[in-house]
Amino acid sequence: MVEDKILNTIKKHNLIENGDNVLVGVSGGPDSMALLYALLSIQTEISFSLYIAHVNHGVRGREADEDEKFVEKISGKLGIPFYSKKIDMEGYAREHKLSSEDAGRRLRYKFFREVLLSINGGKIAVAHNKNDQAETLIMRFFRGTGLDGLKGMEYRNGDIIRPLLDISRNEIEDYILEKNINTRLDRTNLENIYNRNKIRLELIPYIVDNFNPNIVDTLWRTSRTMSNDSEFLEEFSKERYRELVKVEDKNSIILCRQKFSREHIAIKQRIIRHSIYNLTGTLDGISEIHVRNVLELFERGDTGKSVDLPNRLEVKTSYDDLIFRIKNLNVNNNYKYSLKRGQATYVKEWNSIFKMEVYPMEKIQLNFKDRFIKYFDYDKIKGEIYIRNRRLGDTIQPFGMSGNKKLKDLFIDKKIPIDEREKIPILVDKNDIIWVVGLRTSEKYKITPYTKNVLVIKYKNL
Amino acid sequence: MVEDKILNTIKKHNLIENGDNVLVGVSGGPDSMALLYALLSIQTEISFSLYIAHVNHGVRGREADEDEKFVEKISGKLGIPFYSKKIDMEGYAREHKLSSEDAGRRLRYKFFREVLLSINGGKIAVAHNKNDQAETLIMRFFRGTGLDGLKGMEYRNGDIIRPLLDISRNEIEDYILEKNINTRLDRTNLENIYNRNKIRLELIPYIVDNFNPNIVDTLWRTSRTMSNDSEFLEEFSKERYRELVKVEDKNSIILCRQKFSREHIAIKQRIIRHSIYNLTGTLDGISEIHVRNVLELFERGDTGKSVDLPNRLEVKTSYDDLIFRIKNLNVNNNYKYSLKRGQATYVKEWNSIFKMEVYPMEKIQLNFKDRFIKYFDYDKIKGEIYIRNRRLGDTIQPFGMSGNKKLKDLFIDKKIPIDEREKIPILVDKNDIIWVVGLRTSEKYKITPYTKNVLVIKYKNL
């Protein structure tokens, strides 16, 4: 029953397809253990590969180590590849002035993505359930997020999937009991995330007693209708953005002021956010007030006045132009290094070393698990091989995909901030991109059963 | 300061214009007394007429009578016309199976509209403030309303205006103290409206202590952004509706199925609501589930299947048509009566009597306060005068307006249910509508300084 519901969710939202790599984040607690076993059962319906990642948050010493051992043992028993990492959540939080919750989340996803890179890409499955969704909505409601916050967590957001979003905590508990699944007590939730806990343990029971016994289901429905409305407004605004944009390059976006002024305020605000996101690769640190300031500037339209935003972004108006521009972006920082067989090349802009070798297929043992080694079909390479940073108009056929993708869009999808975009090394031959380091390899150069000679690139970050 | 803020709100949202009639609902409590005095002060900036309406809810016997006397006395002192009515809120609630709150609201607005009719139309000013707005948002959030609920109460909704929506309860209390305004304790709020009270007295203080000390301001901002998004989606959906609609008559609406199927689900749901509202004049009793059922019917598209909705509305599909139809609506109930000078005419469909007289201007004392007498410029009348019900294509130039308005749209704006629309008597001459009884008189026939002869219509509901 629970497994059927999860399978339904997966199919309805197209979360997992045949051939996918799915990396499950497993803490050892009931939610993630239920997710793991449900996904195992679903492998009979959809053929995908499972991987397990465990993060040791570095709090509660011995207990955390035991959690890690527990998950590792389960992985071994199930024959599923296991990856783990110890992180210093509290230290990172102090250093970057974040809440423990935010620090933990950032470090977790950073690790998950590292693992994904080493398994040639895939999806990260996390165990958020219906009750988590309700808690999220309440927290966001109190914080004052609008429509786009109250849609809640999404079934799918980039490479993150949430197959349990339609399943309540009670259903998970029943499933754990029914299947006799061993779990560890997930103390992290109880200790660190103060606000969420107050909502779970005090506020929701109060709402249930006084206002709405089905509050969790009610808020789940709210998230669904909000999600529909938000999706439409996003799509519509992006369409309008494309009609408004006059210039869109590395360090600036220029919109047509006349056309902008004709839009509804709900659309104007989204076009502003969209412009900021496209240019800087993030909306972190952008609050409602920033957007309002930009909007006021655009509506007054004083030529010469400007508004400063985070990430060195400057917004100004000039006659018929609305201008977003990154200040002090050195656009003359192009670099290019030639790679030679058997030689190591130091790329100072990325502080890393690339070593290139070529072997006949029968002479080499491929190790796809080592994420610092990449293999390509050498006979498909044309001309010399270089490491360089991005150029205007770069495209790649990403591994596993049939069409080409603009590098710019890849950066946007992967949420790469603007400064990083200028530095990321790209492996190219005469014609094409072979590998965007840290992000994607190309479908065109992949190893196949017909590969005769293998290009081996060893990569080391200093 | 408070008065300036209120004046700002009024100007920004265009709530009151020169020449308006503004009827203030005054309970005698701090909010409505503050509203009354603030509006008085604003009369120096905008020239409008004030009227006071007080509703005696018929609970708490003697105390309620004293409230009424208190407001009457203030009205007298200020020289403002005073209207009051005793209603049986609890009886009406029992009879119509409503909460006391809903019953009270319905009866109050019914009375306010009766008064408006007698003063030749105008606006109803109510004293909802920023804190009321926050409470409303929380209640609706717990109930699971989407975007269109979380926009909260509007500054202006039809003929209702809310000049205090930007003012907090604290600001009102300070204003009352500063101006030394006498008020009565508004016990009704404390006694009857259980949910709102729990939110005011328990929940908001808890949120302030634990999550957000500025929750009232935060939710006020939420209501603003939600309102923007909702407004855009409504406007956009209405546009789409107009492109989808093939037939729109008295008892049916037919949409083009092919075009409908291409819309986003967020827009589809709004088009369905819009169709229901246009046809029946109300969305009361229409829940999310009704809309979802209609949507599923439309998406499956089984010709011949149908969904029944409240207000005798039936929805079905037929080949390329999506059909909304009122069942058993007698469309052959047209009526028409000729009015004769000096004679009384009984209109059985409205159970009322109309008496027509004509006087030279100098022979008559006009009494605009008597809402059962209407005056028109007799020399502008062409041909005979009739009382009839609506006909296809009827339009009117409403009093105070320069353009014509479809009668259908007037009914929709005034939220007249479909059955009423068939019955409402309309005074016409050969060419035009003179008066839609109970709703609007025509600009064309109004009394002016040049009027020589006056058409007097006396109206009595039996």
TrEMBL record, chains A, B:
GO cellular component labels: cytoplasm
InterPro entries from the UniProt entry: Lysidine-tRNA-synth_C, Phe-tRNA_synthase-like_B3/B4, Rossmann-like_a/b/a_fold, TilS/TtcA_N, tRNA_Ile_lys_synt, tRNA_Ile_lys_synt_N
Annotated Lysidine-tRNA(Ile) synthetase C-terminal domain residues: 385-457
EC numbers: 6.3.4.19
Signal peptide range: none
Key words of the record: ATP-binding, Cytoplasm, Ligase, Nucleotide-binding, tRNA processing
Pfam families the record matches: ATP_bind_3 (PF01171), TilS_C (PF11734)
Gene Ontology molecular function terms on file: ATP binding; tRNA(Ile)-lysidine synthase activity
Compartments, as annotated in UniProt: Cytoplasm
Residue sites binding ATP per the record: S27, G28, G29, P30, D31, S32
One BP term from GO: tRNA modification
Catalytic activity: cytidine(34) in tRNA(Ile2) + L-lysine + ATP = lysidine(34) in tRNA(Ile2) + AMP + diphosphate + H(+)
Gene3D superfamilies: 1.20.59.20, HUPs, Phenylalanyl-trna Synthetase, Chain B, domain 3
Family per similarity comment: Belongs to the tRNA(Ile)-lysidine synthase family.
NCBIfam families: lysidine_TilS_C, lysidine_TilS_N
Entry comment, domain topic: The N-terminal region contains the highly conserved SGGXDS motif, predicted to be a P-loop motif involved in ATP binding.
Designated name of the protein: tRNA(Ile)-lysidine synthase
Organism of derivation: Sporanaerobacter acetigenes DSM 13106
Gene coding for it: tilS
